[in-house]
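Onboarding guide, step 5: your first structure request.
Type a short instruction followed by the sequence, for example:

Predict the 3D structure of this protein.
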Amino acid sequence: MVTNGVKVLGALADDTRRAVFESLPQGPKSVGEIAQALGVTSSAVSQHLKILREARLVMMRPQGNRRLYSLDPRGLADARDYLEQFWPSAIAAYSAALSTAEAAPPPEQQ
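The system replies with structure tokens like these:
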């Protein structure tokens, strides 16, 4: 079963899509503003925004004849929830590595 956390990671795997996503924390932007800032076409930005919306990473609200895009906290929460399931085993592995390093004899000095 593919969770939305996995969709989020997949959506952010593309460099341009990640750049589109990373352009939004400062506030809502139109497709044209994003395209100009990134140096890509509006058509390409629109395609990337569609995938980011499907992963719930961005949301759109109409303002007059423009559509403004901003970050959607739901997608970030999905990614956090997905990654947190690995946290206990990562901490346990780190702790085991520290214990092994402390128990190992120091390297001989020459």
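Each response can be followed by summary notes, for example: The longest helix spans residues 87-103.
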